[in-house]
Amino acid sequence: MESECTSAYGNNTNVDFTQSTDDDPLIDGPLISQDVLESVIKREFQKLPTHWAVGVLSFLHVVYVVVCIVITVFCWISDEYTTECTATLHGIDSKTVVLLGKVSLWVMVFIYDRFVQHHHSAVRRRGYLDFYRLTRGIKNLPLLIHSAGNAAILTVIAPSSMLDASVKNLSVYLLLAIICLELLLSVICLLRYTVHVLKFNSKKPHPDVTEEERSHACSSGSHTETGFRDGSSLEDVVEKQADLIDYLKQHNSVLSRRILTLTAQQIRA
């Protein structure tokens, strides 16, 4: 049934192109062949290349947590390896190393967030609006988690002398707990995000507008999701309609330029 709908959808599209070209009295000059026009309109699916960045960020985060545990256990809590730690860290205080590493990790997360945001904006411009909205919240969570972790670490480090006075090395234990909890939450969010990206890349869907037109062509009684339904959020409907209008305007602009270029090429030929 799906193949029949796809075939019918393709045939309807071809007919529309032919009719719009034949019936338009404003076209002057040689007509663009149907095969050339379709090859221009159809775009190759571009995979979202953010999953490898998730792997790199997760690896760096795990390395940082392991280093923090080793430093705090052997250089911060225990006094048996003071000489070795001083030589290994080149005289830098172990607490300073942990905090500098945390700042460096946050910078890496910020770069990752900008990288992901750039590619998701490109996905939105290509018309995959549902996927953009699906991952809009979860893709920003790692940066929020790390920022909240930084605030929690500062809250523990500032009164560390008071905490250690009541319970020995209490600030160290709280610091390790925050770092490990931050790793757990961040990995969960990154794994969920990776699942969405891998499903999107393996499915290779058409833009949302094309998918809705195809489903509408398969069933005349079906309705697209751009209109308002009972139980749907009016804000979501308005946002989706605005995204669709923006995508269609960009798509029509690009398509018009390409058609004019092909027409000019045929005239010169």
User: What is the percent of helical residues?
Assistant: over 70%
List SSEs in N-to-C order: HHHHHHHHHHH
Give the overall shape, derived from the CA principal axes: elongated
Strand content: under 5%
What's the number of helices? 11
- Which structural class is indicated by helix and strand composition? mainly alpha
How much is the radius of gyration in Å?
A: 28 Å
Q: How many E strands? A: 0
Biggest beta sheet attributes: none
Low-pLDDT regions: 6-32, 220-228
- Please report the distance between the alpha carbons of the first and last residues: 43 Å
What's the rounded overall pLDDT mean? 75
Transmembrane segments: 52-77, 97-116, 137-158, 170-195
Keywords: Membrane, Transmembrane, Transmembrane helix
Subcellular location: Membrane
Protein name: Transmembrane protein 192
Report on the architecture of this protein.
The protein has 269 residues and is an all-alpha fold. The protein has a domain of 113 residues. α5 runs antiparallel to α7 and α7 packs antiparallel against α9. The longest helix is centred in the C-terminal third of the chain and has 35 residues. Belongs to the TMEM192 family. Pfam families: TMEM192 (PF14802). It is found in: Membrane.
Please give the structural blueprint:
Elements: H1 2-23, H2 34-41, H3 51-77, H4 82-88, H5 94-125, H6 129-135, H7 141-157, H8 160-166, H9 170-203, H10 208-218, H11 234-268
For this entry, give a set of tags.
269 residues, mainly alpha
Brief summary of the model shown:
This protein has 269 residues and is mostly helical. The chain has helices at residues 2-23, 34-41, 51-77, 82-88, 94-125, 129-135, 141-157, 160-166, 170-203, 208-218, 234-268. The chain has a domain at 51-102 and 143-203.
